[in-house]
Design brief:
6-stranded mixed sheet, alpha/beta, about 450 residues, 5-stranded parallel sheet, about 15% strand, Rossmann fold
Length: about 450
């Protein structure tokens, strides 16, 4: 299995090379040259596997290379050994609605599922090559803390995370800034998540800087992030269907950067019987507008009670465009160049119809989000975080839908309290953060300001 760029300017690379490259050197995103298909017999067998065993089965066809394939079981076991629930990503029935809980990792967010694996994978690859890596990423909240906790204290890795100053929840901020390990740098940029993401991509596209400082990516631009997230779609289907291949399921996915729902898209291309992928956005609805109209246009980023979804430029969207445009890298490059220059583009009516066959999209407003938290709590006693509530509300009236619960409610206590009057109980991993010292540098949302700070941090 080799990996190619959505923009066609990179010679095919191995899985290990793709992981270390992160963003493709031509500015595109890396994808497997083909999506492996899962047969009915194999699918039935996968339907009953424990999570860690399933993860190895799902990942193996994408990895192929030895000795990494032989190391996969150990890497997976180390990645998920610290999760607080024995099922890792349990499916919980709440008032008759299946909820896939993805927040049982060390930072209580779905990003742990991928980033605990990626941290162990990075360490293995660097030890094998006696190499070093400087990880650079931007976060709208949860990716940053999950990435930091995935690599903190590792001897061959340094990490710098950019977050939008004052635009993440207080708990998300403290999960990042209270980590004082020498290999961790936190930067708050005076702007939005999109500003941070723009700065990170600009630095990765400076190939001389990327090579000199050995930059690696933990954002969902890194293919290994997507690969790890594919697993829980198969796991949830198996728990709900009992492994019956004639039993399709639907998923509602709170969506900002498009990585999580793209993992579901890949799972369906592999043969997982998914009837619908419901893409749930908040007020920042660029993806909903695209599904409805075929027009992709950047808008203003509005702060919401679901801040991890306050995004107008979804970096993983380019991977989907590659398939929508018939796997034509020149066409992808043309549309992305137009978007960079004009802030928008449109696909053809035929392509727009294809999008609407792949996804159902719903934008959920602030009042609806708070109402969903309140109504679910009153009916069942279950507290949902605001991102999960966006997914639940988007799935209303759609029949049986597995909703991805992306974060623990205590990470967004103010929104939960506003909706229900109840203060979510802080898990032990969060309870002590309020009294810990912090370290963070506030910088303007300018590439050169961040570059200068990184040069000092990565010495």
């Amino acid at each position: 299995m080799r990996y190619i760029s959505t923009r066609g300017g990179v010679a095919p690379v191995t899985f290990s090379q793709a992981v270390m490259m992160g963003l493709a050197t031509d500015g595109g995103l890396l994808l497997p040259e083909r999506i492996p298909r899962v047969g009915a017999d194999e699918l039935r067998r996968w339907g009953g596997l424990p999570f860690a065993e399933l993860a190895v089965e799902v990942m193996r066809p994408f990895v192929v290379e030895e000795p990494l394939v032989s190391m996969l079981p150990g890497l997976v076991q180390r990645a998920y050994g610290g999760f607080s629930h024995p099922e890792i990503t349990p499916v919980r029935m709440v008032g008759g609605r299946p909820i896939l809980e993805l927040f049982h990792g060390p930072t209580l967010a779905f990003k742990d599922v991928a980033l605990q694996f990626l941290g162990n994978l990075f360490e293995y690859l660097l030890d094998r090559e006696a190499g070093e890596l400087n990880i650079l990423g931007a976060t709208s909240g949860d990716t940053g803390s999950a990435a930091i906790h995935g690599v903190r204290g590792r001897s061959r890795i340094r990490i710098a995370i950019l977050h939008p100053h004052g635009r993440v929840s207080p708990m998300q901020e403290r999960q990042m800034t209270t980590v004082l390990d020498a290999n961790v740098t936190n930067i708050a940029v005076e702007g939005t998540f999109d500003d941070g993401q723009r700065i990170v991509k600009s630095l990765f596209n400076d190939l001389e800087f990327k090579e000199r400082y050995r930059l690696g990516a933990v954002n969902s631009i890194n293919w290994a992030r997507i690969l790890a997230q594919i697993v829980y779609y198969f796991y949830a289907w198996g728990r709900l269907s009992g492994g019956r291949v004639d039993r399709p399921v639907a998923f509602a996915v709170p969506t900002g950067n498009f990585g999580d729902v793209f993992a579901g898209f890949v799972a369906r291309k592999m043969g997982l019987p998914i009837s619908r992928l419901i893409m749930a956005t908040n007020r920042n609805d660029i993806l909903t507008r695209f599904v409805d109209t075929g027009h992709y246009a950047m808008g203003e980023v509005h702060p919401t009670v679901s801040p991890s979804m306050d995004i107008q430029v979804s970096s993983n969207f380019e991977r989907y465009l590659y398939y929508l445009l018939g796997e034509d890298p020149a066409a992808v490059r043309g549309l992305m160049d137009r978007f960079s220059a004009e802030g928008s583009f449109s696909v053809t009516p035929e392509q727009a119809r294809a999008v609407s066959r792949e996804f159902v999209a719903r934008a959920v407003g602030e009042e609806e989000t708070l109402a969903e938290i309140r109504e679910l709590y009153q009916a069942t006693g279950y507290l949902a975080d605001p991102h999960t509530a966006v997914g639940l509300r988007a799935a209303s009236g759609e029949g049986e839908v597995i909703c991805l619960a992306t974060a623990h409610p205590a990470k967004f206590g103010a929104a939960v309290r506003e909706a229900t009057g109840v203060e979510p109980e802080l898990p032990p991993v969060l309870a002590g953060l309020r009294s810990l010292p912090t370290r963070c540098t506030v910088l303007p949302a300018e590439v050169e300001a961040v570059r200068r700070h990184l040069i000092h941090s990565f010495q």
